[in-house]
Amino acid sequence: MNAVTEAVKLHDCRDAFTATLEAMAADDPRIVAVCNDSVGSSKLNQFRDRFPDRLVNVGIAEQNMIGVSAGLANGGKIPFVCGAACFLTGRGLEQIKADIAYSDANVKLVGISAGMAYGELGPTHHSTEDFAWIRAIPNIAVVAPCDNIETAAAIAFAAEYTGPIFLRLSRVGVPQLLPDDHRFELGKADTLRNGSDVTIIANGVLTHRALDAAELLAARGIEARVLNMATVRPIDEAAIVSAAEETGAILTCEEHTTFGGLGSAVAEVVVDMAPVPMKRLGVPGIFPPTGSENFLLDEFGMSPDGIAEAAARLMQRKA
């Protein structure tokens, strides 16, 4: 499937999240929301108004928030825990490990404004380590939807899924890439564009940039396969191996440090199962500076032009 991302409507994935959550809550009294004084930024205002006894606002106390959500899960509820990804994962990491993962609690962690979406608030608010932190903990699935459709589908999946899951959402608008009837499958990558020369793997806000890069490459006679790898854990090993064997080179793009995230997860599969030339684009092991998300992504080489150029250079390493 090709994407045309020029002059199209951009969607805030938080809207898809809250709309889906409200619809599910209307049918299932077990669904509750827990937040850290983030009703507005999580867009839970309408949920609070419709279900005032099913929203727990613990205030700025992320460790307590995780403990409360584990208790709610133990009591038979299905808690969706919402907060800025940087604070949800950073401040609550010990409780995520012990209260949720080790206990296998049925808690749904929703990290909003992930990556560098807080932009001008700077390094304290950038969340470019969350994949690595959560991926290293057993029992937790890690998911970064690429658009509004996949966000809604992933939230619906999470409600039915038994066990902990971390869903990483941005606040920056993205175009719709997937069809309205898309169904989310945990651990399953989606091929958004076929190609035989090189594979570009991305998720979240980088997916539409990867597709734009593929169009630029096509104009240069290079056919790039584009995989939307929404699930970072468990990773789709079969799709990665097929990409390696059929295109001979893999480029990953992520709004995250190049250590421990999507690129690292893909590289682990490549080195073990199908070694080919590979390049990881992301934040190069530094604290990203202050600046808008789009500016920072461009600065770190993840504009469509930058991605296309990195893919073209990578192809020169093919045997």
The biggest beta sheet, please?
A: 7 strands, mixed
Briefly note the CATH topology name of the largest domain. Answer: Rossmann fold
> What is the averaged pLDDT score?
95
CATH-defined architecture of the largest domain: 3-Layer(aba) Sandwich
- CA-based gyration radius: 19 Å
Report the count of strand segments: 14
CATH class of the largest domain: Alpha Beta
> What is the domain total for the residues?
2
Quote the beta fraction.
15-25%
- Sheet with most strands: strand arrangement: 3-2-4-5-7-6-12
CATH H-level superfamily of the largest domain: Thiamin diphosphate (ThDP)-binding fold, Pyr/PP domains
Shape: globular
Helical percent range?
A: 25-40%
Assign the structural class, choosing from mainly alpha, mainly beta, alpha/beta, alpha+beta, or little secondary structure. Answer: alpha/beta
The parts where pLDDT drops under 50 for at least 5 residues are 1-6
SSE ordering: EHEHEHEHHEHEHEEEEHEEHEHEHH
Number of helices: 12
Q: What's the end-to-end separation, in Å?
A: 28 Å
Short description:
Helix content is 39%, strand content 19%. With 319 residues, the chain is α/β, with parallel strands linked by helices. Helix 3 runs parallel beside helix 5, helix 8 crosses helix 12 and helix 9 (237-247) packs across helix 10.
